[in-house]
TrEMBL record:
<protein>
    <submittedName>
        <fullName>LLM class flavin-dependent oxidoreductase</fullName>
    </submittedName>
</protein>
<feature type="domain" description="Luciferase-like">
    <location>
        <begin position="5"/>
        <end position="270"/>
    </location>
</feature>
<keyword id="KW-0560">Oxidoreductase</keyword>
<dbReference type="InterPro" id="IPR036661">
    <property type="entry name" value="Luciferase-like_sf"/>
</dbReference>
<dbReference type="InterPro" id="IPR011251">
    <property type="entry name" value="Luciferase-like_dom"/>
</dbReference>
<keyword id="KW-0285">Flavoprotein</keyword>
<keyword id="KW-0503">Monooxygenase</keyword>
<keyword id="KW-0288">FMN</keyword>
<dbReference type="Pfam" id="PF00296">
    <property type="entry name" value="Bac_luciferase"/>
</dbReference>
<dbReference type="InterPro" id="IPR050172">
    <property type="entry name" value="SsuD_RutA_monooxygenase"/>
</dbReference>
Length: 301
């Protein structure tokens, strides 16, 4: 299993960079950032939020070794061919470490505030599958034509990525999204606890089987809010009981080893730790160091 860090795009750039550099220097395998323009929620929202691909370009230039990607880019925000040009440029800056994380889009308030069409669920799924065809076509083929919403005709992508630039799809849907993942993605990501991950995985295993695809060809990753410490398990349970939709885990090093072990036994490939609950910069660095010392070595492959 590999272990990565999700850096909050709401923090100042110097804090994002400092924690990213610290994670790379202390052995973490990847850095991820969310692709949102504002926090989710009702009412006036003036909280800071950096743009994901600009952050990734900055990290790519100055943080070596680790994988980088958006978790995940909202398909509704950008034309996929334009997005692919940006992602490929970041891949070149990073020397081939970019992972293109994509999702169908969902956050209502930012679409309303910025005048971006969200569409209904069926529309978003149709747009998303077209986008996946465009993204993989541009990456893999000399020219790409995909009729429909985006109107891509005989489109080139030069230069090509220097690395594999896998397409990661963030999804939980057990039917249409599972089929799209099985058809186009090299990686699949979802929020989960170990029990939730086992349940969600069923639809994706079924879709892979229907596509005639070996499950070992799909890299799997998940994330949950993490609360280290003796009272961490109780904090995580409180989050889960609140029903906000985010998975959470917590506890002492031994408790977290047990929890992560359940994911490992179920075949998870990558665990992503958001920095959201780890506190201010110095405390966040200490928390990552504690996890690296007490939890990660039990699962290194």
């Amino acid at each position: 299993m590999i272990f990565s860090v999700w850096l909050s795009a709401a923090k100042p750039w110097d804090e994002v960079l400092d924690l990213g550099r610290h994670a790379e220097a202390t052995g973490w395998d990847g850095l991820w950032v969310a692709d949102h323009f504002m926090r989710n929620g009702d009412g006036r929202n003036d909280d800071p939020m950096h743009e994901a691909f600009a952050l990734l370009a900055g990290l790519a230039a100055v943080v070596p070794r680790v994988r980088l990607g958006p978790l995940v880019a909202g398909n509704t925000y950008r034309h996929p061919a334009v997005l692919m040009k940006a992602a490929t440029t970041i891949d070149h800056i990073s020397g081939g470490r970019m992972v293109l994380g994509m999702g169908a889009g969902w956050q209502v308030n930012e679409h309303e505030a910025y005048g971006i069409a969200l569409g209904g669920v069926r529309e978003r799924l149709e747009w998303f599958e077209q986008a996946c065809r465009i993204l993989t076509g541009l990456r893999d083929d000399d020219r790409t034509t995909v009729p429909g919403r985006y109107g891509v005709v005989d489109a080139p992508l030069q230069p090509k990525p220097v690395g594999p630039m896998p397409l990661l799809i963030g999804a939980s849907g057990q039917k249409v999204m599972a089929r799209i993942v099985a058809t186009y993605a090299q990686e699949w990501n979802t929020w989960s606890t170990p029990a939730q991950w086992r349940e969600k995985r069923r639809g994706y295993d079924r879709a892979l089987d229907e596509a005639g695809r070996d499950p070992a060809t799909l890299h799997t990753s998940t994330q949950a809010l993490v609360f280290p410490g003796a009272d961490g398990a109780a904090k995580a349970e409180k989050v889960l009981a609140g029903g906000a939709g985010r998975a959470a885990i917590g506890g002492t090093g031994a408790q977290l080893v047990d929890t992560v072990g359940q994911w490992a036994e179920a075949g998870l490939d990558e665990l992503i730790i958001p920095d959201f609950t780890l506190g201010p910069p110095e405390r966040a660095r200490d928390a990552l160091d504690q996890l690296m010392a007490e939890v990660v070595p039990h699962f290194r492959t």
